[in-house]
Amino acid sequence: MNRTASALTLLLLAVVGIGATYLMQRSSAPHIAAERRLADSRKLLDLLTADAYDNQPLQQPLNLADAQLSHSRLLAGYRATKAGQTVAVLLRNQTEGYAGVIELLIAIDANGKLLGVKTLKQTETPALGGPIGDWPNHWLQAFTGKSRGEPSDAGWALKKDQGQFDQMAGATITSRAAINAIHDALRYFDEHRLALLGSGA
């Protein structure tokens, strides 16, 4: 086989290889996207037990009015229902921590009680405020069962600020930011209850 034939054979093999790779990527792209959506769904919905709802909350985002709150900003909201009845509202909320943005997911039941809080994004100092990103999170679990009025507005603060909550060790600013953001979300829920719960309230 002469040099030209060898070069053409190599070129043909390269084209076939590139084409096969391209076709494989194209055919697997929908599957990869579906798996990514499923992973995102698990990450966002693991504040709720799997049997607590029967809809697809992430596929029906809520229209949030007045999203700029006192200490934070709402990014998105979702409604979880079972048999047509609203069982929970999930609010994605962003606040400013010590080292940057903290994004929280806050689950509230139909009566305005906190079901759970999860950190979705944070850039806090690893040994100080960074543990707010741990999941499950012992410090954030202390807020479960609280509501806008329980404790009172004055109680929604650190104990060192005459409130009711402990802070994460060495992370006063991070702790204050999270408490304020959670209280913001509960207050927003209370003030927009009918719109958030919808007809399945």
Keywords:
single chain; 201 residues; alpha+beta; 4-stranded antiparallel beta sheet; 4 strands; 36% helix; 19% strand; elongated
What does this molecule look like?
This protein has 201 residues and is of the alpha+beta class. It has 2 domains: 45 residues; 151 residues, no CATH class. It is 36% helix and 19% strand. It is built from 4 helices and 4 strands. Strands 1-2-3-4 form a 4-stranded antiparallel sheet. Strand 3 and strand 4 form a beta hairpin. The protein is elongated, with a radius of gyration of 24 Å.
Short description:
Helix content is 36%, strand content 19%.
Query: Using only CA atoms, what is the Rg?
Result: 24 Å
The assigned structural class equals: alpha+beta
Name the overall outline.
elongated
Q: Largest beta sheet, briefly? A: 4 strands, antiparallel
The figure for the number of domains is 2
Total number of beta strands: 4
- The chain-level mean pLDDT equals 88
